[in-house]
Amino acid sequence: MIHPDPLPPGGSKTESVIMAERHQRRSVLILLHQAHSTPGRVGRQLQALGFDLDIRRASLGEPLPPCLDQHAGVVVFGGPMSANDSDEWIKREIDWLSVPLAEGKPYLGLCLGAQLLARQLGARVFSHPDRRGEAGYYPLMPTPEADRLCGARFPRFVYQWHFDGFDLPAGAELLADGVGDFPHQAYRYGRNAVALQFHPEVTYQMMCRWTTRGAHRLTQPGVRPPREHLDGWFQHDGAVSTWLARFLEAWTSDALPAVSEGRRAASDPTVTTLPPARVSRPIPPPRTEALLSA
After folding, report:
1. How many domains does the chain have?
2. 42-76: per-residue pLDDT in tens?
3. Would residue 273 count as lying in a domain?
4. Is residue 4 part of a domain?
């Protein structure tokens, strides 16, 4: 923990509290779901912005904080498990997502992290009967709100690795549609909670590892062959990396725009919801990055 600087001569108690709050907000909570997973490029860019990473794994029994007064935000990453699994820790993590929502803290859900948030908000997470998925680069159809999110053009081709999808939660703002078997690809809930089905955190080294260790998943319907994954990185990663840097800067500095009422899912009669979920109150080297399929 970083302690605030001593109060300067003549300084007030209010100034001391402000200084302490500024220091406390220099940590971002990172939730990973496997023993050797890392936050990839998201972690590196957050560190470049001056944030420490508080990395925790609820899947391994590590505790989640009861409040986020010492964190600037939360990033929840992917994993090979499903948001519909019956494991106690998955239910506990879904319940815990009420904490950043209630506090209005910045939340970023990536793949499984987006699906867990959908469950917390009462939306369906589903898989196709033939277990088809998306693995590789796929096109997106961003909304105008997505392009206004952080002053950078929302990526049009993104890296995917998932075999579940989600319905758009009631009250959420759609940010991007898919063009294939998984229609909802990105959404925002409130001002600060953003959920992405895709993986902007992936590095080239991570992609090589995923396509090697997860090769058996690349025979399922809908996925791209391994060579297309690596070729796509050279074509599309620059735009994704540029967008991510701009987004994280806006996301951590409370600079995301207000939600557009005209795009809220509450006005969309096609939204399918389930009863609300239960609510309770230095990065390792690239070669250690593990498979984060979701």
Report:
1. 1
2. 999 999 999 999 999 999 999 999 999 999 999 99
3. yes
4. no
